[in-house]
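quick q for whoever's on today - can somebody do inverse folding on this one?? i tried earlier but teh output was garbage lol. tokens:
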């Protein structure tokens, strides 16, 4: 499995502009050989379940934000009552999903151990630990640089000749990067050594 954009750029770099299943298969094989790409294991059924529950939870979080915003400006008593009921329903559904996710992780010794390690890091709570488990099932098989790149947190240097650009983070898994943003801010505020380093 490769990033489709990279596969297309590789094809264009070889001069192949046509796109058919047969051509794509040949170019993907050529790309894998030329770049020595490693295969990634297919996500397990457990990870598929966790991913599906996580996506549903994220949708409910967005619904909760929208309903809360509407409740703050709603004037009609019927609308306010319905929004209050909807917010209660959303909270129950989020709780049900989080309970199901916790049950799945607790039933798997490896995932449970991984969750415990992640939750022991200052600034990482149970929800962020769960997000990391869902969004980065490869964790534990990667070195630090690979993990940072996969999360989209590795600085990419932009330099050419005498021109010196600024390093910026890019790529990676956006949902994981977003999930790590608030814990990083909390850790920065709590840890005085980090605060001094980044001021």
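ok took a stab at it. sequence:
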């Amino acid at each position: 499995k490769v990033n489709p954009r990279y596969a297309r750029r590789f094809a264009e770099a070889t001069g192949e502009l046509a796109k058919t299943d047969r051509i794509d298969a040949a170019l993907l094989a050529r790309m894998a050989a030329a770049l020595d790409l490693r295969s990634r294991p297919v996500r397990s059924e457990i990870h598929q379940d966790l991913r599906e529950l996580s996506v549903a939870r994220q949708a409910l979080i967005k619904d909760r934000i929208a309903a809360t915003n509407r409740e703050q400006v709603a004037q009609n008593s019927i609308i306010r009552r319905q929004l209050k009921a909807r917010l209660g329903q959303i909270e129950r559904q989020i709780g049900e999903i989080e309970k199901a996710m916790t049950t799945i992780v607790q039933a798997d010794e490896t995932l449970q151990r991984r969750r415990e390690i992640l939750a022991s890091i200052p600034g990482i709570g149970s929800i962020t630990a769960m997000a990391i488990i869902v969004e980065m099932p490869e964790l534990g098989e990667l070195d630090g640089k690979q993990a940072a790149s996969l999360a989209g947190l590795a600085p990419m240097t932009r330099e050419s000749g005498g021109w010196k650009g600024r390093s910026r983070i890019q790529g990676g898994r956006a949902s994981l990067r977003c999930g790590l943003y608030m814990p990083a801010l909390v850790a920065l505020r709590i840890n005085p050594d980090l605060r001094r380093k980044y001021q």
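fwiw The mean pLDDT is 86. also The chain is about 70% helix and 5% strand. so keep that in mind when u check it
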